[in-house]
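Could you help me review a protein record that somebody else here produced? This is what I was given.
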Amino acid sequence: MITVNAESSFSRNVADLVRRVDYRRVVTAAEREAVFRLRYDCYLREGAILPNETGLFADDFDDAPNVFIFGLHLDGVLASSIRVHVASPAHPIAPALSVFGDVLGPRIARGEVIVDPTRFVVDQELSRIHPGLAYATVRMGMLAAEYAEADYALATVRTEHRAFYKRLLFMEPVGEPRLYPNLKNPINLMGVSFPLMRQRVYDRYPFMTSTREEQDRLFGPRPERSMAVPMTGEALEAAAAA
């Protein structure tokens, strides 16, 4: 069991790391290739995918109109990455919807906004040096949910990782594990009401908080609720400089 003092010390250490990390939207072809290569290395090491000749791991969801891909850099080096889909009635696209559509589809039909973070990877060597890097990366899901004013936050994870998301984000398993596209092992759906969860997470882990300025810098100007679509290229750079 983690004591209050130990938890506070942990949060401070991760907060220090968050201040060091350079969070970047992945936009260019070179940035995408670097992320896809890191994904491949991590997933192959875990035995989650089969080898391929390209040394890259990508899928059609990387080109969805409602996808945001991020790379976290430490001292100029790509340290981790995560991909986030903001699914809504306007853009009912997300990896989890393709597998758990019977569970999540009715939420979209009711007009809910769902945040689906996937392809969460951390460089093996840097994770040893910076144990808090995984938490700094998961933080992007919270930023996305704030940006999109999400109703429901979810995670699609291997069975052995469920405890991490339950402890960190108060998520609960939804249904039974299912086979997932391009992965060798079954995946669990975990979810939680974001409005009910958010303050509990912020109270326990202050490093999860973000400012509106940070959200806008990473996601672009916020559209109307349920219409969140990423800005790209020059438009994103112009918004960040404004």
In short: The chain has one domain: 4-219. Confidence is low (pLDDT under 50) at residues 231-242.
